[in-house]
Each structure stands twice: as C-alpha cells, then as structure tokens.
C-alpha cells in the first residue's frame, strides 16, 4: 500500500513542471527554455559520442557518468567511455565537430537539448561539450524515489574568453591533490585558465634539473617535480583548462636570491645576504637588471620551464618592485644613466623587455602584473590589472589604460578572494567598465578576469574554503550575461553548487569539521560551528598586520581558519532584522529573537567547552559580547523593558571588536540597527 | 577577576596528577612510569638533535613541531629543524647513536624522559627517536588554558618486527595522497611495513618504461609513475617504513594477460581472450608456467620494478590460483608430466622457484601468500599466512606450519580489516599461537603481522574509514606486550587516537560527512548520521555476494559506505542493556529507553527527509523495524504494558534483516536480549 502511495506521489511530482528560477545553474546559461516534461534516469542510461573530438571527451564523459551515478546510486551499466560511436542508440548523444584546442578565443559554445527520451549535446568542439556535461549535471532533479532532467533547450557560450583562477603555491605550498581538485572545480564552473604562481619570496616550487639548488635550498622540500607539472598540465588540458605559469621577477626574489645572491641588487653579498622569507609583505630582494648573469640565469630557467607548459602564455610577475635595492646600488644607478633610463619603472621595463625574446623562443606571450605597463613596454605583453582602492588608485584603472593603449588585459582587481570580503563585491565587479568611453576594439582587448588566491594565510587544509564557493560567483560574472546579477538568486544557487563542489572533491565543508574537532579538543563541535556562522576572518590583510604575526610555519588550525566570508547566519539575521524593522509582526519578531536566544546558548556552551579546550578561550570575549547584547535586546523586544542606552551602545560597540581570535562579528551591523531602532 | 579565577583553576588542574589509565597512548608502551609533575609548553619550546642520526629525523622533528603547534596554537618560534646541535639548550633533546636502516629486525627502541623543565629522548637510532616523538604527541594534556606533558619515564620497544598494513591499489586505484596520508597514520601507530598490492585482475598500476602497454591498456589511466613510486618509497623511508611491493602471479592475472595473452594458460587466445576484470572474486586467467616467454616477461618486469624499491623484500602473491586453465591445457599437462610435477601446487612451486633468482639478482627476498608453501619451496621465502575459518582451515594454521618448517612468516589471517568485523576480533588475534608447541627458535620465525585492506568495496573516499581507527588496535597487538588486551581501555584510547589520526590527514571522519550530504540530497544530515551509529556494512564479503553486484565503477556513495564496524551507539546500547538487565534501576532504564526514543525519532526524521532524497528510501524498512520494535519495548518497559510475544519476536527478527541498503543493525543482539528478558 505504501509502495503504491509512493509511486503515485512520485508520478505527481514528476509531472509538476519545475520553474527556471528553481534551477541551480552556475554560471547561468545565456539562453534557457524549459519545456513541460522530464527525462527519467535509469541504470540503462548510456552515452554515445560522435564527430571528431579531442580524446579528452572520453575521460570527461566517463567522469560525468561516475559523478551522476555517485549522486543517484543508479548503478549505470556503462563503465568506461573510450570509443567513438560505441552505442549509436544511447539516450545521450554528444556530437563535436572538431578537436578543441586549449587556449583563449576558442569556440566554447554548446547546444543542449533535453527531450523526454533523448538528450543531444552539439558543440563545435569537445570544449563546448564538456561545458554541456557540467550543465547537465547541474540540471539533475529528483522526487522522493527517482531522478530526472527537466526537458529543455539551452544555448550557451561565454561572455569573456579568460575566466581564470590563480593559486599561489609559493607562500604556502599546495600539493598536487589540492591543485587537481581545484581544477575539477574550475571545470565545473566552466573556468578555463589556471594561473599557477610558482615562485615568491617564501619559496621556489619548480624542480629545475639544471639548477637543482633552487629546490634543494629554497623550497623546504616542498616543490613540484617536472613530471608533476606535466601531469597537472595534462590534467588541466583534459578539463579544457589552459595553465599559465608564473615566475615572479624581478621582485619577490628572496627565494631565488638565497640560492644565487650574485644576481641580486645588493652591493655587497655573500651566501647569507638573502634567505627564504618566513613572513608576509613586500620585501626588498630584487634581481639585478644591470647584471648579464641575471639574464643568463633567467634564460636557462625559461628554457627548462617553458617546455613543461603546452600553453602560449607565461606570467613573469613584475609586481611590487619598490626598487629600494636598486636605489642604493651605485652600479645599478650608473647602469640606469648609461642606458638613459630615468626611473626605476624604466629600468624595470628594460629588464622585462629582455624576457620577451626568451619567452618568444618558446612560443610564449609574456604576461605581467600591471606594473610592467610603461610607455616602452611591448604591445604584445598582456597586462594583468590588480590595483584598486586598497592601493590608492581607482579600481581597475590599469585595465582601461591598457585597453586604450593597445594591450590585451585581464582584470583581477575586485577578484582578490584572499581579502575575505563578501561575495557580492566580487560578483558585481564587471571586467567591462560601465559607461566607459572604450571603443568596440578597445573593449575587445579586455579578455576577462581572474580570481587570485594568495596563500599567506591559506594552507592545503583551508585553501578550498577560501576559494569556494565564492569563486563560482566570479565564474558566473565572467561567463554569463552582464545582466545576470540578482544577489538573492546568487546565494540560493551558490548554496547548492557548494554541496556539488564538495561531491567533486573540494574540502571547504569537510575540513571545517576537521579544524573544529581540533579546536574543541575532540569535544562536541556544534556550538563552535554555530558560532562560526556569525564570525568572519578579519578582512583586507588585517588578520596579519605587519606580516609578521603569522609565519609560513605558524598554525593555521584556529577559529579564524574555520570562518569564512558570507557567514551564513549573518546573512539570515540581516534579512530577519531588515524584515522585522519594516514590519514588527510576531512572526518577524520570532525570527529575530530565535537568533538572539541561540547566541546566548552558544556562549554558555562555549564557556562549558572551554574548561577543556584552551583554543576556545580567545573566542569567549566575543561570544560573551554578543550574548550580553542579545540578553538586553531580548528584554527590550520580548519583555518591552527599558534598558540603559549607554550600556546598550557600549555592548554594541563591544560586538565590533576585532581584537579577539582574528575574527569579527558579521552580525554587528544588524545588531546596531536593531539596537538603534528599538 | 575572571582572569585570576582561570589562573587559579589552571594551576590547580596542572597540579592534579594524571593517572596512567587516563593516558590515551597507542600502541601502549612496554614500560611507563608517571611521576608527580608537568612539563609546561610555551612558544619558546625548542628541539635540539645530537648524535649521528639519519636526516629523516630533521623532517620528522619539524613535522612534530607543526603537529604540536597545530593542536596547541602556541606559535612556536622554531620553524624548520635542519641541523645537528642547533639549540644546545633546547628543552627537548633528542640523541640518536646511529643512522637507522629501513628494514626488519632493526633496533626501534627508545627512552623518553619527561622532567618538569627538560625532555630527553634517547634511542639507538632515529627509528626509535621518531617513535618517541609520536608517543610524546600522544602524551599532550591540557587544562582550560594551557598545554603540558606529564612528567614520566618511558622505555619502549616493539614485540614484533613486522608491523604491516597492506593496501590494495589494484581493485580500486588509490592515488598518491591516499597512500601518503596512510603512511603518516602508520608512522603515528609505530607501524613499519607498507605492503603495496600493485597488480590484480582489475588493473596494472605500475608504469613500466619497457612495457608501456601494461598501463596504457590495463589501468584505465590509473597507475603510479615510476617517479611517484620512488617518491612514496622515500616518503615511507622518512617515516621509518619499509615498502614491500606486490606483483601478484601466476593467478590474479587478468590485467597483465589482457596485454600479453600469449603468456596466458588458455589453449587458444587472441587479443580479446582476456580483459581487465570489472567484478570481484577469483578468476581463472593465469600465467602459463610452461612457457619460457612468461619468465622472460617477468624477468624484464622485475628488472624494472625492483630498483624502484630500496627494501629487501618482494611479494609475488601466489594466492588463489585454482589451476583451471592449467587443467584444461594439454600443453601444460604435458609440461607437468615431463617435469615430474604431480599437482598444480607442484607446478606453481616450479613457477615460483624460477622467480627467486630473478629477485635475488636485485637483492630481494621473495615473499608470497601461504599457497606458495609446498615441500619444494625454498626456505628463504617468507610465507604470508592468510587463510582461516572462512577458507575452511583452522585460523592461521599455515603460520605454525611455516615456522615449524623453517620459514619466516607473517600473519594476516585475523587482520582482514575489509571483512568489516568488530575490532576486538583483530585486537585479540595474537600472531604468537597460544599454548603452541613451537620451540623458541620456531617462534622467532614469526616476524609479526599485517592488516590487509583489500579494495573491492573501498574507494579513495572511503578507504580511510575502512582502515582507521581499527588498524590502531592491530598496531598495538603487534607492538605492545601480549597482556595489553583490555577492551574497555582499547575503545577509550582508540576514540582519542581516531581524532588524532584525523588531525594527521586521515579522512575517515570528514568523508563520512561528505557522503551523508550526498545521500541526504543536501538536507540536514543529523538523523542519517545518528542512524549510521547503529548500522554496520554487511560483513565477510556478503555485501557483494557473487562479486557482481558492485563493479569497480559502481557508486560507493551509499549508506553502507558511510557505516563502519564498531558502530558507536551499538557499543553504548549493548552496555546499557547489559547493565539494565543486571540491575533495572531507574537510571539504567533511562539509559536504555533514551536510545529507543532516539530511534523512533530517527525513523520519523528519515521519513521526512526521504521525500526529497531517493537514496534514503532503501533505509526506511530498517529504520521502521527498529522504530516499531522500540515503540513496543517502550510500552513494555515504561508503561509496563503487555505486548504480544509473537508480534515482538517478529519485530525483533525484522531487525535482523540484511536485505536493506547493504547494512545490518548492530543493535539486533541487544534488542533481542532486551525483548527476551522483559
């Protein structure tokens, strides 16, 4: 009897047509048309591939089957997809006209048509087809007993051709498995450029057979072998992703100079002049642009590194060289005069121009951070725009300048995900400047954007939670129509995507548990986890003011490492307060007071846990502040008692404290509003 | 004021002497003497190394500092330990007389002395010293605000020299990061042999430069490169662990024969005679022992594989060859006659004997599963005992036989962790047979034991939860005194160790959450998690009866993959019922009825969740059975109502069902007892 009931229920649900808004697709496709029907998934579901695709389509289709099977538990009969046209009558037909080439300005479009008994994917190449498979996975729906796709037609293509993620593997080394799972996540978000920051003051991370000392002396044993790099380039290629390596010169050079001090800019040097840096910040060690040995060394490095990467782009950094060691070295000053280089910028341009032919020899285009753009810089160079308000210039100014001056350019200002800002700041950051005076041709110079994950404060355990799910919003900004920007929809969809990214291997949710169990000293973590839902790590590098509080070897197992931007209960509380202040209905009041009661409860639980968990102690002043304020607010709201406004304001300001445990309360603004309004 | 209170409290706690039983050490040391005092940890804590150790001590000491810092958040000033005698006045002094050699029968002993202002580790070599560091980490204590070690002297050494873990990377490929984190966990449990099962019917997992087709055609792209293997051997060496590779011959040969059918035993063959196996079980494809080409191929393989492994042991499998293809091939039968080999066992011995010189050439001793032991087998071979009651022979019979016949031998029967049995069955399985008639010399032939993790049903996501924490109990059996076998103490200590293993990278806890979120379809997982605390996966391979229900590419994202042996609430409930039946006090009754109420609640929550989670449906019959029975038992116990015994017995037997979702209720026996007793 119950069985019949379930069957009836399921058929009812199957026939209830889903609305477009209920689909949790990211990035949102260019055109989608839902029709009234469903494609039911069974264990007989099979895929067939036709056309002339790159073999990467086989691996991706096999992975698609495994991911779909993992989510549905249907035990698909089809195991590995390895041949063209193996199942001509399969329900899912993928046709690719041609072999997709990894790079920018490729045709990545696809058509996805889901009928009740057939699914067709048509794409110019496998690059579009693998995007279609990701869309199809995101379309999966279910009722109580079965899984299906809604019938639909989707026509999709990217708005920008450069949709990148940079990972800094120098500040904290990020092992191969971290890189691989992030490439998987990038592919799921239809991103196509992985920018690999491989060297910096804190370490040299690439094996060089002709210069083995670089990793022997300047990596603490943490580096990628050449085989591992080739393996990653192949892994990325299989996912339609271009890898752009970065060797950051002439600044950020502590690591390389600790091995080769003779090419540094200090007047006097010995083997101890430079050392691998353990702190964060901008440091003076800089390559000597007047020394022919510098170019000899770089040429040898590029000769060995370039062939490891099949793509046509090479990032040489070029950022944050303040030239202090140049200024204080008479030999370099003389070189400047002799070569009629007026400023250090001119000298850096001289330096960078020497690298262009070294890279061109290997068919690579030079890319660099915006500081490389001076009047004599080659127009072939790609300008990576990163500065903004924090650096005292208008946001992304260099992007417009680059486009106007004939450079291809990529935006990262506004996409600095390590700043720990709310996702909306990244989501609404359009690479195409609004109301700009750029011509169509100039606009075409703007290739897209790149999320940058600097790793001063991110370890292999925590980096995923710093990248995801927020980078999905950046991926959408770079792929979808400029008018797709509804924040409510973003948060809903990102929430689902977050779980799907976990299914793909991203550890942003699971490692939170790992850290919480450590902080709680293996006690119950529920109260700590709840508290983390209203706390966010200190923002814009204020967590590590001066760059010396945290060394590269400091513990990153603290409460601030658990917390993330977009604290989930803060989002809920903000909405509850906003609704309550508009309409003080009983329902709206309860939504607010439930939070307040929860926070009182959290503090008492944290107090109890702290008796056996020293790492909880630093949180107590903050949990006490929010608990104390919540108590007072409850007296006002529920009991309608009068409370002393001075005491209240004092309590509110205590909730704005940023000196406890490197986190801040994400509910401060709403608490303040609530206090003022009552 | 509060600050003073905390200080007072902490000093009180610091002075309260911890009891030996409260220490959660695993494996338990041979001698421990706690004294009345503490060593307080501060950020100034430093380590100094003296003597003549292998450089692995530097990496291990650095890792020790990072792990201790990660747990305490103290921000130790010392970063990387790279030199002898760098801080002569450091609080922790490590002295190693000599450079430790990786292998068996090495001196792994250590002395650890903790005084209130100094810690001394003395060991013959770094091998003992790194064990001491693991013990020290396990000794960490805390009060509410600070961390300390209790003052103590520990003198420790292993009971057996072979303390192994085998991981099957053939059935399901286990990537490098899985292997690395398990090597870390092994080292934490003072285990010293990693047996790497690299080939089987389901795949060939080692790159061979001279036979590239093996991985091209028989690995589905999932294999270890030679560089990766060398990297793992080095990683293991740094942790004092010997790596023993296994290439399983002459049976378990589907993968190799799919590439080289000409060395198979079937009379007629072509390129399609053999195929990589997708199911589980014992299959007929077997190498042809009468064909010189077989030995030529194996010789070439060993010539390439042996140099990758620095250890002196090589496992050639040799198990489960039923000889069916030998029996049906006249050419092979003729070969038997010609060589006066009466049985297939004799023929296999002939085969195995050919391998001994191939391995000896590379300084490797041959090891094989017990089937290789026949009267003509070389006494140099090491016999790996695995059969027992499930195979119709007395448990570990071959171990005694081997010892008596002059073979060195290692026990795995009783250590088959993939059988999903309770930990006590492994813990109480002593490699030294009780009341045996073995002479002292014969006993010395028993090297130790090895946990075996076959991976038919274990993926990279789930394998850690199949290995840990249970293997810690096996590690203790192999290291500690034979009289250390209190089960209550085991469970208490294993619970703490389980969290510490997570801190080291083992994913057995965190991946449970990943799978639960998938099964719940991203809904709240609390009820599912609670239900998993009384369910265990079907045991002794009954989950995959016939070996065909699950293919290598089937989904292992199901509820049975979440569940583990030693279901935690079952342990609690068993104890509660046992106490209640002895003494029906109100307190004891409440402990029982709280469980029953919880299970009624779980079922109703699972019902609600299942409306939007098809993967929950298969659990409902079982959760309903336990809920229904719980309701009736509550009526009896709390309301003292009479219930129909037939109905009750029927409900109890429904709780014994093994046909739902591949799990069984671990509380069945206690429910039955409770029902009978009431």
TrEMBL record, chains A, B:
UniProt record similarity statement: Belongs to the glycosyl hydrolase 20 family.
GO cellular component terms listed in the entry, alphabetical order = lysosome; membrane
Residue ranges constituting the Beta-hexosaminidase bacterial type N-terminal domain according to the UniProt record: 24-156
Give the Glycoside hydrolase family 20 catalytic domain ranges: 160-481
- Which Pfam families does the annotation name? Glyco_hydro_20, Glyco_hydro_20b
Q: What is this protein called?
A: Beta-N-acetylhexosaminidase
- Which molecular function term from Gene Ontology is one that the record holds? beta-N-acetylhexosaminidase activity
Positions annotated as active site in the UniProt record: 320 (proton donor)
Q: Does the keyword Transcription apply?
A: no
Q: Which residues form the signal peptide?
A: 1-16
Record Gene3D superfamilies: Chitobiase/beta-hexosaminidase domain 2-like, Glycosidases
Q: Which PANTHER family match?
A: BETA-HEXOSAMINIDASE (PTHR22600), BETA-HEXOSAMINIDASE A (PTHR22600:SF21)
The UniProt entry's GO biological process terms, in alphabetical order, are:
carbohydrate metabolic process; ganglioside catabolic process; glycosaminoglycan metabolic process
Coiled-coil residues are: none
Question: Is the keyword tRNA processing in the record?
Answer: no
Q: Which UniProt keywords apply?
A: Glycosidase, Hydrolase, Signal
């Amino acid at each position: 009897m119950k069985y019949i009931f379930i069957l009836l229920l399921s058929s009812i649900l199957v026939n209830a047509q889903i609305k477009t808004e209920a689909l949790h697709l990211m990035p949102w496709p260019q055109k989608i048309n839902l029709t009234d029907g469903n494609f039911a998934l069974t264990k007989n579901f099979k895929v067939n591939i036709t056309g002339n695709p790159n073999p990467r389509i086989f691996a991706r289709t096999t992975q698609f089957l495994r991911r779909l099977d993992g989510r549905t538990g249907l035990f698909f009969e089809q195991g590995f997809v390895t041949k063209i046209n193996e199942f001509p009558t399969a329900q899912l037909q993928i046709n690719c006209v041609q072999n997709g080439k990894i790079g920018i300005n490729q045709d990545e479009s696809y058509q996805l048509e889901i009928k009740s008994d057939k699914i067709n994917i048509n794409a110019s190449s496998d690059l579009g087809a693998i995007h279609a498979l990701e869309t199809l996975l995101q379309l999966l729906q279910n009722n109580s007993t079965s899984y299906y796709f809604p019938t639909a037609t989707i026509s999709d293509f990217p708005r920008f051709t450069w949709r990148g993620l940079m990972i800094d593997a120098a500040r904290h080394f990020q092992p191969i498995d971290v890189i691989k799972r992030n490439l998987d996540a990038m592919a799921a978000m239809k991103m196509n450029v992985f920018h690999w920051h491989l060297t910096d003051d804190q370490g040299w991370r690439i094996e060089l057979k002709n210069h083995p000392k670089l990793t022997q002396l300047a990596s603490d044993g943490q580096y990628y072998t050449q085989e591992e790099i080739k393996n990653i380039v192949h892994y990325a290629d299989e996912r339609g992703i271009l890898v752009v390596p970065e060797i950051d010169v002439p600044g950020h050079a502590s690591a390389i100079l600790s091995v080769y001090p003779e090419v540094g800019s200090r007047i006097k040097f010995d083997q101890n002049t430079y050392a691998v840096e353990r702190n964060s910040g901008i440091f003076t060690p800089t390559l000597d642009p007047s020394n022919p040995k510098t170019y000899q060394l770089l040429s040898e490095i590029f000769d060995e590194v370039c062939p490891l990467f099949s793509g046509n782009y090479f990032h040489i950094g070029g950022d944050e060289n303040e030239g202090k060691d140049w200024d204080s070295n008479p030999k370099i000053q003389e070189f400047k005069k002799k070569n009629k280089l007026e400023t250090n910028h001119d000298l850096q341009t001289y330096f960078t121009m020497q690298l262009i032919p070294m890279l061109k020899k290997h068919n690579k285009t030079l890319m660099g951070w915006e500081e490389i753009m001076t009047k004599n810089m080659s127009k072939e160079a790609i300008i990576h725009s990163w500065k903004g308000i924090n650096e005292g210039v208008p946001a992304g100014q260099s992007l417009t300048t680059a486009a106007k001056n004939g450079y291809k350019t990529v935006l990262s200002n506004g996409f600095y995900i390590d700043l720990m800002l709310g996702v909306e700041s990244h989501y609404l950051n359009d690479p195409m400047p609004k109301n700009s005076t750029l011509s169509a041709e100039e606009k075409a110079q703007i290739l897209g954007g790149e999320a940058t994950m600097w790793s001063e404060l991110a370890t292999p355990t925590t980096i995923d939670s710093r990248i995801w799910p927020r980078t999905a919003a950046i991926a959408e900004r770079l792929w979808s129509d400029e008018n797709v920007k509804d924040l409510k929809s973003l948060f809903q969809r990102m929430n689902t995507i977050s779980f799907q990214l976990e299914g793909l291997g991203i550890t942003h949710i699971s490692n939170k548990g790992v850290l919480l169990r450590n902080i709680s000293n293996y006690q119950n973590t529920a109260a700590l986890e709840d508290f983390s839902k209203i706390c966010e790590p200190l923002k814009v590098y204020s967590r590590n003011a001066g760059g010396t509080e945290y060394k590269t070897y400091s513990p990153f197992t603290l409460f601030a490492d658990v917390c993330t931007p977009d604290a989930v209960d803060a989002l809920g509380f903000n909405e509850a307060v906003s609704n309550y202040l508009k309409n003080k209905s009983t329902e709206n009041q309860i939504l607010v007071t439930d939070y307040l009661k929860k926070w009182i409860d959290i503090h008492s639980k944290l107090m109890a846990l702290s008796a056996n968990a020293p790492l909880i102690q630093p949180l107590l002043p903050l949990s006490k502040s929010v608990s104390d304020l919540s108590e007072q607010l409850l007296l006002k709201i529920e009991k309608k008692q009068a409370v002393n406004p001075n005491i209240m304001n004092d309590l509110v300001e205590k909730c704005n404290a940023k000196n406890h445990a490197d986190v801040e309360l994400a509910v401060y603004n709403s608490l303040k509003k609530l206090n003022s309004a009552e």
